Design the sequence.
RNA sequence: GGGCGAUUAGCUCAGUGGUAGAGCACUUCGUUGACAUCGAAGGGGUCACAAGUUCGAACCUUGUAUCGCCCA
C-alpha cells in the first residue's frame, strides 16, 4: 500500500497506543526472552491531584526510552506506574470542591465522612495524570497502576486489593519496635492555614519586602555599662553609657517568647554585660520578664547590633541556640497562627516562667502550657500582634531612634531641610518561608510530632553509594547525597491531616498512682502509648500487659461532637488505682504519616511486600531510577534508608538525576511569569515523537534543560524526513515488496556494503549511549546518521541505480534500502515510538491491524550486529573518496560562481590505481551529483582550470572562459592559508623530540599520516595556483 | 554565610589530554521526479581571565571574575 504524503501524528498516536495496550505490549515481562534478566523502573509517583507538566514529560520520556530499549532487547521488563496520595494537596482539592458545590465543610462532616468524599474524588479524578502519560507514548504496565493509599481502611472495593497500606503500617511498627521512630517536641514548619506540620520540601523561601526594627532591652535594676564602638584600626568611634542592649528583629511579636539575648563570645562591645539580666520591653510593665544575656557562636557581630533575641519556639536558628544553652522555649501561637488565648491570666503565666528561670523544675509539657501572651494580644493574628507590639514599644520610648533629614518644599517652592528623630526601622528584603500550597507564611512551631531517628538508619544508605553498589548520575549528585546524609536531621513524619495513613499508635490517658496526670503504667507524664499494626494486635497487647484487661477504643476524631479525649481520661482514671484493670479505654493518634513516608516504600510497596510475591522476587532490587535532583534528599535518600532498614537491600542500582525543565531563556516556568509550556499542547501541535526527541536531545548528563520551541520544530521536521525517506522507499523504488529479514542482506555494491556498515556503527553508538544514560548522544547520532548519511548520501546515491538498467543492482539495493529503513526504525523506536511503529506497519502491514504483538515494532528484536563484522573498509574508503570528489567539485563550482545547473567537463591529470577503480565503478553517480558531463585524461590541466584535489587524484574543471580567475585565486589562497596553519602545527609537533619520546605510537603515526595527506593536498593546490597565475 | 555547579560560534548546547563540533539563526543560490517541515554552497570561536602541570590543555591543578542552583 502506498504511503500517505505526510505522517498524521494526531490520528496515528491514539490508534497505535490503543493497539499496543490492547495487545498487552506493556505488561510486565512482555517480549521477554526465556531466562531473561529483569529490568525494572519505578515511576517517581506523581501527586494524585497533579496534571502533566514539562518536568513529568521529560522525566517519563527518559524512562520510556530505557524501558522500550530493554524490552526490545528481550529483558523481562517492568515499568511500574502509580501515584502518591499527596495528603495536603488532596485535602485541599477536595475541600475546595466541597465549598464550590455548597456541601458541608470538612469540619462539619467529620473525619469519616470527609474521607469518603476524598475516595469519591480519587475515583473520579485521580487518574488524570496517569492518562496524560499515555499521550506521550509511555509504555508503563498500566494494569499494575499503584497508589500509596491502596488497601487503607475505608478504601472502596476497587482500591482495596492493593496492600500499600499494610506495607506502610508494618514498616512503622517495625521501626517503632526497633527504636527508630519516636515522638517528641521539636521545632517544625507549621502551616497555619492547613494547621499541620509540613516538610521542608513543601516550604518555599521567597524574598519579600520586610522591616527590621531596632529595640532597647533595658538592663535589670537600671544597671549601666560603657558601650564602645571601634573602627577597623581600633580607633574608638563611639563611647557612651547605656542602660540597655539594642536588638534588631524582623518579628517583634515573638519577643513575648524570648528566653535570652545572645551575643558572640568575641564581641567586646557586650563583654561587660554578659550574664546580666535584661527586661523584655513588652507586656504589662509590672510583670515584665527578665532574661539573661548569653554568649553563642550564632550571632553575627556585623549584623544589626550584633545582639540577637532568642525565641526557641519560633525560629530555627534560635531553637539551636536555645537547645545549646538550655534556654526555655515558650510557644506563643495556636494552630492557626493566632496569639494563644488559652491558659491562666498573663500575670500568673509570667510568674511561672520567671519561677522556671530562677531554677524551678518544669517538664517540657509544662513549659509548653505556659502562655506568655498578654491579655490584650490574646487571640490576635500574628501580624496584628506585630503591629501592636511595635506600637507599645515605640510609645514607651524603647525603640532605637535615629535622626532623619528630609528636604521639603513649601508653598512657594522654597526647599528647606527638616530633621526629625524617628524610630529606626530598616526597610529591607527578607527571606520568608511560605507554604507551597497554602501560600501563607510558615510559622516555625514547637509541637509534638513523630520522628524517624534518621541518624540511626543513615549508615547503610551512605555505604551503598560509597562502595558503588548504587551509582548516582551525574557524579556530582553523589557529593550532594553525602553532604546531606552526613548532616542528617530527624525526619518529622507526622501530619495533622485526615487524608493519609493514620499513625498506628494508641494512647491510654489516665492517672498515675500518686494521682498526677499520666499513663496507667505510672511511668511518665504523657499518656501511655502502644504501637500495634491493628486493633486486634493492640487488644492482645493490652490483654497481656494489664492482666486480661479488655481494650475499648473511642474515636480519635475530636472534631466530632460528643467525642473528647477527656472521656478516655475519665474512664481510665475511674478504673481504680491498682493494676487490676478490667478494661482500658484508648484512642488512636489522630495524625497521619507524611506522604513521603509511604513514597519512601514505593519500590517494595508496589511489588506487593510484605507478601512474598513473585514480583518482589523478579524485579527487586529494581534497576534504574530517573528523577529530579530536587528530590534527591526527600525521596531518593529516604528510599535508600527505608529499603535498607526494612528489607536490607538497596532499592535500585542506578539513580539518574536531572534538573528542572526551563523555558528557552533558562527561566523557571511559572504561572505568574506566564511562560509555562503545556506538554500536551506540544503533542497536539508537533506530535509526541517531536517532543520526545527534543527531551532526549536535551538530556545531557548534568545539563541544563532549556526548552526551545525552535528545537521542537526542528525535530518535528526530522519526523517528516524519516517519513519521506520511507515513502521514497515505498512509492519510488518499491523496496518493501520483497520478504525481508532481520539479518543484513548479502550485498556486492560498495554503496550498499557501505550503508550496512554505517548502520552497524550506529547501532553500537546508540547502545553505548543508552548504556551510559547519554540520551543526547543517542539522539544526535540517530539524527546525524539519518539526515546526513542516509538521506543526503545513501538515498541520493541509489537514484542512478534505479534510473539505470542493472536489474541485479536494483534488486540488491531494494533489499538493502528496506533493511536499512527497518534498522533505522528499530534504533529510533525507543525515542520516537509512534512514527516508527506507523512506518513499520504501513511498509509491511505488520501487526497493528491484526493485533499481533510479535509483529509490532515495539516487540521487534533489538539488533546485536557489530561494526567489526559489517563494516567493509574497502567499501568505506571507496564511498568516502566518491563523496570527497563530489563535495570538492560542488564546493569549487559554487565558490567561483559556476551555475549550479550547468553540466561541465572535467579533466584528470593524475590518478592512482585505487582512484581509477573508484571512478570507474561510480562514474554515473559522480557525474550526476557533481554535474559533470565528461572526464578527459590530460597530462596537464588547461590554463585557468579550477583545481579539484582528491586523495590520490588531481582533477580540473577547464572553465577559463566562465570563471572569475580572481575568485578562484582567492579560493585557493584561502585553502592554502588553512593548510599552512595546520601543517605548521603538525610539523611543530613532529619536530619536537619530546613529542616522539612521550606520545603514544598511534598518535605519532596518526600525526605522520595526517601530515602526508595535508602535504599532498598542499602540493596539488600550489601547482594549480601557479598555473592560474600564468594567465592572470 | 555554607555546599554543588557553570562560563565553548549571534542563540541553545555537546565535547573527560592528541587537527574546536551540532542544531537553530545568518549570507548567497536553487520549482533537477522522497522531502520547501526541503536542497546546494558559505561566513562565524584568544573555548571567561591569570598562573601552573604536560611533548601537547577547552579538558588536569590553583587563583580571580561573573552567573546559576540547593541549604542556611
Sequence:
Amino acid at each position: 500500500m502506498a504511503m500517505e504524503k505526510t505522517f498524521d501524528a494526531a490520528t496515528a498516536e491514539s490508534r497505535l497506543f490503543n493497539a499496543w495496550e490492547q495487545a498487552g505490549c506493556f505488561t510486565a515481562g512482555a517480549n521477554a526472552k526465556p531466562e531473561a534478566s529483569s529490568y525494572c523502573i519505578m515511576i517517581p509517583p506523581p501527586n494524585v491531584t497533579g496534571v502533566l507538566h514539562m518536568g513529568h514529560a521529560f522525566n517519563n520520556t527518559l524512562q520510556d526510552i530505557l524501558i522500550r530499549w530493554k524490552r526490545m532487547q528481550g529483558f523481562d521488563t517492568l515499568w511500574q506506574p502509580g501515584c502518591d496520595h499527596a495528603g495536603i494537596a488532596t485535602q485541599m482539592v477536595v475541600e475546595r470542591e466541597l465549598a464550590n458545590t455548597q456541601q458541608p465543610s470538612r469540619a462539619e462532616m467529620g473525619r469519616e465522612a470527609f474521607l469518603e468524599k476524598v475516595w469519591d474524588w480519587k475515583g473520579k479524578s485521580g487518574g488524570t495524570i496517569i492518562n496524560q502519560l499515555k499521550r506521550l507514548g509511555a509504555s508503563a504496565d498500566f494494569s499494575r497502576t499503584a497508589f500509596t493509599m491502596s488497601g487503607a481502611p475505608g478504601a472502596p472495593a476497587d482500591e482495596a486489593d492493593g496492600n500499600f497500606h499494610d506495607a506502610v503500617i508494618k514498616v512503622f511498627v517495625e521501626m517503632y519496635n526497633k527504636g527508630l521512630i519516636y515522638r517528641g517536641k521539636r521545632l517544625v514548619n507549621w502551616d497555619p492555614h492547613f494547621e499541620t506540620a509540613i516538610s521542608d520540601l513543601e516550604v518555599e523561601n521567597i524574598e519579600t519586602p520586610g522591616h527590621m526594627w531596632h529595640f532597647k532591652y533595658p538592663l535589670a535594676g537600671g544597671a549601666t555599662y560603657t558601650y564602645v564602638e571601634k573602627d577597623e584600626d581600633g580607633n574608638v568611634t563611639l563611647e557612651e553609657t547605656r542602660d540597655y542592649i539594642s536588638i534588631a528583629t524582623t518579628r517583634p511579636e515573638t519577643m513575648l517568647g524570648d528566653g535570652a539575648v545572645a551575643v558572640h563570645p568575641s564581641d567586646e562591645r557586650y563583654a561587660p554585660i554578659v550574664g546580666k539580666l535584661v527586661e523584655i520591653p513588652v507586656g504589662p510593665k509590672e510583670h515584665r520578664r527578665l532574661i539573661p544575656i548569653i554568649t553563642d557562636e550564632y550571632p553575627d557581630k556585623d549584623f544589626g547590633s550584633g545582639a540577637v533575641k532568642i525565641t526557641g519556639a519560633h525560629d530555627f536558628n534560635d531553637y539551636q541556640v536555645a537547645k545549646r544553652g538550655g534556654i526555655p522555649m515558650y510557644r506563643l501561637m495556636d494552630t492557626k497562627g493566632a496569639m494563644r488565648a488559652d491558659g491562666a491570666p498573663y500575670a500568673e503565666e509570667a510568674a511561672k516562667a520567671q519561677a522556671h528561670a530562677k531554677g524551678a523544675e518544669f517538664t517540657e509539657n509544662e513549659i509548653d502550657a505556659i502562655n506568655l501572651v498578654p491579655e490584650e494580644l490574646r487571640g490576635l493574628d500574628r501580624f496584628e500582634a506585630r503591629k501592636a507590639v511595635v506600637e507599645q514599644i515605640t510609645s514607651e520610648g524603647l525603640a532605637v531612634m535615629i535622626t532623619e533629614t528630609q528636604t521639603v518644599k513649601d508653598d512657594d517652592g522654597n526647599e528647606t531641610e527638616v530633621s526629625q528623630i524617628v524610630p529606626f526601622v530598616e526597610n529591607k528584603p527578607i527571606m520568608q518561608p511560605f507554604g507551597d500550597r497554602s501560600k501563607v507564611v510558615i510559622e516555625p512551631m514547637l509541637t509534638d510530632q513523630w520522628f524517624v531517628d534518621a541518624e540511626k538508619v543513615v549508615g547503610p544508605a551512605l555505604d551503598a553509594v560509597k562502595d558503588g553498589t548504587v551509582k548516582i548520575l551525574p557524579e556530582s549528585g553523589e557529593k550532594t547525597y553525602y553532604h546531606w546524609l552526613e548532616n542528617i536531621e530527624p525526619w518529622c513524619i507526622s501530619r495533622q491531616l485526615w487524608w493519609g495513613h493514620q499513625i498506628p499508635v494508641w494512647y491510654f490517658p489516665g492517672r498515675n498512682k500518686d494521682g498526677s496526670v499520666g499513663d496507667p503504667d505510672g511511668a511518665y507524664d504523657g499518656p501511655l502509648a502502644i504501637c500495634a499494626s491493628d486493633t486486634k494486635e493492640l487488644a492482645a497487647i493490652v490483654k497481656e500487659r494489664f492482666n486480661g484487661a479488655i481494650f475499648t477504643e473511642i474515636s480519635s476524631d475530636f472534631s466530632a461532637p460528643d467525642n473528647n479525649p477527656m472521656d478516655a481520661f475519665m474512664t481510665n482514671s475511674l478504673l481504680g488505682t491498682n493494676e487490676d484493670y478490667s478494661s482500658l479505654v484508648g484512642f488512636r493518634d489522630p495524625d497521619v504519616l507524611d506522604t513521603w513516608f509511604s513514597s519512601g516504600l514505593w519500590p517494595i510497596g508496589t511489588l506487593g511486600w510484605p507478601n512474598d510475591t513473585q514480583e518482589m522476587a523478579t524485579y527487586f532490587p529494581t534497576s534504574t531510577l530517573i528523577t529530579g535532583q530536587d528530590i534527591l534528599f526527600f525521596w531518593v535518600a529516604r528510599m535508600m534508608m527505608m529499603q535498607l532498614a526494612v528489607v536490607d537491600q538497596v532499592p535500585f542500582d542506578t539513580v539518574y538525576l536531572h534538573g528542572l525543565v526551563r523555558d528557552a531563556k533558562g527561566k523557571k516556568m511559572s504561572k505568574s511569569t506566564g511562560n509555562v509550556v503545556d506538554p500536551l499542547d506540544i503533542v497536539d501541535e508537533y506530535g509526541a515523537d517531536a517532543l520526545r526527541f527534543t527531551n532526549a536531545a536535551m538530556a545531557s548528563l548534568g545539563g541544563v534543560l532549556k526548552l526551545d520551541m525552535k528545537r521542537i520544530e526542528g525535530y518535528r521536521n526530522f519526523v517528516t524526513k524519516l517519513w519521506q525517506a520511507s515513502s521514497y522507499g515505498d512509492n519510488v523504488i518499491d523496496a518493501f515488496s520483497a520478504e525481508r529479514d532481520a539479518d543484513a542482506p548479502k550485498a556486492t555494491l560498495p554503496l550498499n556494503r557501505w550503508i550496512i556498515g554505517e548502520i552497524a556503527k550506529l547501532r553500537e553508538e546508540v547502545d553505548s549511549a543508552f548504556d551510559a544514560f547519554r540520551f543526547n548522544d543517542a539522539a544526535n547520532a540517530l539524527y546525524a546518521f539519518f539526515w546526513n548519511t542516509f538521506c543526503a548520501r545513501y538515498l541520493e546515491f541509489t537514484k542512478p541505480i534505479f534510473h539505470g538498467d542493472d536489474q541485479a543492482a536494483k534488486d540488491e539495493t531494494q533489499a538493502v534500502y528496506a533493511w536499512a529503513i527497518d534498522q533505522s526504525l528499530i534504533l529510533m523506536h525507543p525515542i520516537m515510538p509512534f512514527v516508527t511503529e506507523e512506518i513499520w506497519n504501513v511498509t509491511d502491514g505488520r501487526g497493528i491491524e491484526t493485533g499481533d504483538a510479535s509483529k509490532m515494532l515495539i516487540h521487534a528484536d533489538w539488533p546485536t550486529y557489530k561494526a567489526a563484522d559489517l563494516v567493509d573498509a574497502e567499501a568505506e574508503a571507496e564511498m568516502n573518496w566518491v563523496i570527497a570528489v563530489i563535495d570538492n567539485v560542488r564546493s569549487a563550482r559554487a565558490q567561483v560562481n559556476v551555475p549550479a545547473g550547468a553540466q561541465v567537463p572535467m579533466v584528470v591529470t593524475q590518478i592512482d590505481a585505487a582512484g581509477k577503480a573508484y571512478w570507474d565503478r561510480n562514474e554515473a553517480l559522480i557525474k550526476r551529483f557533481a554535474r559533470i558531463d565528461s572526464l578527459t585524461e590530460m597530462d596537464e590541466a588547461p590554463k585557468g582550470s579550477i583545481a579539484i584535489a582528491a586523495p590520490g587524484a588531481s582533477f580540473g574543471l577547464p572553465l577559463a572562459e566562465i570563471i572569475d580567475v580572481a575568485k578562484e585565486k582567492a579560493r585557493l589562497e584561502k585553502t592554502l592559508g588553512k593548510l599552512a596553519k595546520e601543517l605548521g602545527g603538525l610539523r611543530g609537533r613532529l619536530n619536537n623530540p619530546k613529542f616522539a619520546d612521550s606520545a603514544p605510537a598511534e598518535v605519532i603515526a596518526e600525526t605522520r599520516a595526517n601530515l602526508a595527506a595535508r602535504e599532498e593536498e598542499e602540493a596539488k593546490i600550489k601547482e594549480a595556483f601557479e598555473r592560474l597565475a600564468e594567465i592572470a
